Give the backbone structure.
Amino acid sequence: MGTLETMKDIFDNPNKIIEEWKKDGRKVVGHRCMYVPEEIIHAAGMLPYPTFGTPEPIKKADSYFQPCACEFVRNLFDLALDKKFGFLDSMVLCNTCDAVRHLYNMWDTYVDSVPCYMVNNPQKMYDESGFKFYRMELEKFKKLMEDLSGNKITDESLKKSIELYDETRKLLKELNDLRKRDIPAISGSEFLVTSMASMLMPKEKANPLLRKLIDEVKNREIKNADGPRILLTGSIIDNPTLIELVEDMGGVVAVDDLCTSAKYFWYTTKPNNDPMDAIVRFNLERTLCACAHPSEDRYDYLQELIREFNVDGIIYFNIKYCHPFVYESAIFRKKLEEEVPTLTLEVDHSLSGLGQLKTRVQAFIEML
Amino acid sequence: MLTAGIDAGSLSTKVVILNQDKIMAYEVLATGIDIGAATKRAMDNVLEKAGISLQDVESIGSTGVGKKKVPYKSVQGTEVVCDTKGALYFYPKSNGVIDIGGENCRAIKFDAEGNIVDFALNDKCASGTGIFLDAMAKALRVKPEEMGELSLQSTEDIEVTSMCSVFAESEVVSMIHRKVPKNNILRGIHKSIASRVVGLANRILLEGNVIIIGGIAKNIGLVTTLNELMNSELTVPEKPEVVGALGAALLARERKE
Amino acid sequence: MITAGVDVGSLTGKTVILKDNEILAWNIIPTGPDSSETAKEVFDMTLKQAGLTMEDIEYIVSTGYGRVVVPFSNKNITEITCHAKGANWFFPSVRLILDMGGQDCKGIRCDDTGKVTNFAMNDKCAAGAGRSMEIMSGLLDTPLAEMGGLSLDIKNRLAPLSSTCVVFARTEVLGYLHEGTHKNDVLAGACEALADRVYTLLKRVGIEGDFVISGGIAKNIGVVKRIEQKVGLKANICFEPQIVGALGAAVFGRGILEKKTAKKK
Amino acid sequence: MATKVTTPGKKNLQTTLEIGKAIRAYYEGVKEAKSAGKPVIWSYGLVPREIFHAADAPVLYLEHLPLMIGAKQLSGRYIQLAEEEGFSRDVCAFHRCFLGCAVAKDRDPYLEKLFVSPDLIIASNLPCMSESKSFLYAADHHNCPYYFLDAPINTWGKDIPDYAIEYFAGQLQGAIDSMEEHGFKVDMDKLKESINLTKKMMGLWNEIDNCRKTVPTPMSTVDGITAAYPLIQLPGTQLGVTLFERLLEELKEKVEKKQGVIEDEKLRLMWFGVPPFYNMGLFNYVEKYGAVVVKSMVEYIAGGAFDPSKMDPKKPLESLAYKALVDIVNPTYPNMVDFIVKAVEEFKIDGLIGVVKRSCGLLPGYMRLVKDAVYKDKGIPTSIFDLDGLDIREYDDVTSKANLDSFVESLLASKRRQ
């Protein structure tokens, strides 16, 4: 089985990873959004598990939430109510958007099988006083992880974890760079599956697989790559269907600034002999999340992606009621459209109404 | 003691004549543009069916969105109160009632003595159940009454995911174009409505013996799907669409005594 | 050179046959449950009308909601791109096009060759923009064709329908009717609300240059007048606004053929 | 725009009329300052106002503007303007309305009397995402500098840790520095003095609340929303204190004379969620049943967890930071839900009405939490239904009144049985 198929297999059934990891009693900690440092969880000998959703309609969650909350978060809560996250020993959230805050309130009240904790993080980047605040929160979080795992987190174990995770980020970035060429080595949907599988897998397993994959695809050329090159951004996409839709319509998804891809590996940790300080700066010396400030930074970052991957068009896939990106796409629209045509689309996380979406994407691609 | 109950809904108007403990006659017709005229027409038909005249009726109760426009002096009650009285009339032991009407659905919970404990209304985005079903019947070229049975002969469980009836309509239209078998689409439609109703019932933790009323309750497909999704015991009275009007009649009689 | 365009919308199926840049024949029929059936039906009708057979047509482009299921088309292009090309064929100076089909409402900007430069479509909540007229026609039992005219003959005061959600607009209309508001005033309210929605969409795309309205809505004088008044531009409407998409498709067919023959030389 | 059948709220207190005058006078002052060439600040509801009063800076509050033009049924037009700029209907109606006002070219005369363009915008992410992002568009449109105050959410409950207070106090200091860069002079002594005044006002507000807890209640939400204005806009000012002193006097008088808002008060209701500013008459509608809406969530600032002893004039920024972070509206839930449960008991509430604004970011996760907590603790029912308090285009009078009828009737029935 080629490495791409292995990645797809892991993406399709993450439970295999869980069973293997929990075989000898090791613990798994679920987390959502980027300000929960996976390195701390890993240094305590536990598996950080990024909780992704499933493209199913909402069943139970709508009795708790009003339906005007983001469907991705309602889907996560639905899965939690269905005990689909029962294997987690703890769920850790952080301070990003309104919906994630609601998830903490709801999970803490109505899901008793898995305890929930919230790491408080500043939303203003590059601010020394913010580093101090976040450091205090991470010290408390580190203590919590030590109590949960029963293992002590030392500077050495933390440094090793940081190195391990940085290695995964470097490899994913190297793989992503293979898409800069005129004919990318890997398609958008294949890359998303690989990136998400690498996020799900223990990094000890992911890194060798990624190295093998890079060799395999180094001089591979994907089929029908003559269409316009598209940058995908917007709310979290945890299912390749939307990307496949763009590719079927003749678009080449050259780069995707998503929580499940570029945002995860775009930066690596700067060398620092205090590992906790390294983690603080890794998270707070960049503006990747649309909830954070200064948002002009995100605009420059998108410009960088447009140049490096010579992008012809941008598509914003905004999940309905996803306020951070609904504001960003409206605020950036005029400036972005001076350089590159931009299409903003409203999508459902449960992937309903794909028919209308196809028409809009195909028209956009015909326009480029 | 003869009493009349009028349920002036925005889509259909229902009138009931109650004689002691028996429903003597009932009438259901489309409200159309003029509520007053529709109520009068329905009243005349039901009086004729019962073989009595307006003077014989001692008191009249009215409910529904058009209760203020009913052209008779009547005791006015809210839908929540009338649905409860109507349901308890048939089933004194029940714990709650779900009213699936043309525009909205309502879930009501009451205690052993029949006092209303809690009730929940569907979100605006999930309204239009009845209209949605009619539109789907037209799009699928199927008679509305047959939709229920057809949905039970489905071969595969497909999802109509959107909650809003307008999106669901466009979703179904695209399924028709993709030549998805009619019965499977109907199954998807009924499951999506049933899960919305279950969501409503869960909001007030409604369990036990629940009465399903309202025009849509006659749809066997929907009630069967509800039975699958809800772990409570569901019963559909014989004439589910007039239970509200019956409740209004009972209200009027109570006030008279 | 003979080419054809087939536009299978969610409400109507349309075909146009083009011979050396002249419309040879065209037809519109309501869409049945099976859109590939509808496409075949309307295409055969038009062939007969033009006295041609399938082989005479050198290139067929399909467009519209059911464009992918048209079995006999050589290429499928979206209705946005086709409406721009079609509008440009009728009015070469056009820069702004409004097309409202059964499902969606589209604001399109194009250059002097009819190539799309920007477009915007209604958001999900206003998805029923096109369908709202159909629903209003049912509610007020007034045929679609007459609604526009009646909406301009206001009896006492326009009954404003404010919500963009079609389901909610229904309850508002029923509320007005039950209070005895005159049908024309409610129709005026419905057309005004639709014109508002369209104006918001066109503002997003930028209102400039000559303006064309295509698709079924162009036949509703009530909506067209109100849009013109809000946008401040005269709307150019061709003799049959519903075939603009199919015509654009046929014009694209011609362009593709010309490029093919030029490459062969 | 939509001319729907709406009725203004019937106020029954003399002081609230005076407070209404004070609001108009305040905005005239801002208008005059602008035309006299003085710099004007745009800021938001929950940014501590004391730092502006300490610099005598004229400030336009960007939640208050939509509320005032909403009350005049003008909100629909400006919300549509924001949608034309590309803002989706899924984001907060307040912020769409404010953005519409910010970009409007021909403003209604009523709005023209209030509106001034900004010289500096001071915003924060308290309590939701709209607060944290919508001002960026306005700043860009008016190319006006801005300062962003990062307020951490309250994951600690009643007592806020020092490092959080220190962080937000630092942010406040940043705002003060930014004001001084743009032509404002912040007088620190005045700021220290304002802490005392705020403490006094909070004390007065609690006493006013105690009057409202008596049966029958002398003041309903219709007056309450206007009376809460000083809490939102004039904390730390002498005017705020005097207005509250006068209000307390009037209420005490009414309590002694047992003068309620309505004669035979049968039902005491509480409102959770954004009230219908364009149809405040809806609150008076339930009075025909002998029901009065005693209190609404909008009239609480800082709320129950607020401990006045922590307000220390010597450390003004820390005190203001504490007051902002412990506010019931600062997510996450313990503060808000515990507080509502306590308020239901203290105000002797019979039923809670929860309204959902479809485009809200803050409340869709709270309705069920509040409903279950209040029912579990006191057995008090909550009725939840759709009502967008600001976007008049979505208002349906018949359904809203039918929902209120159903709820009030079921409350009266259960009260008759007890």
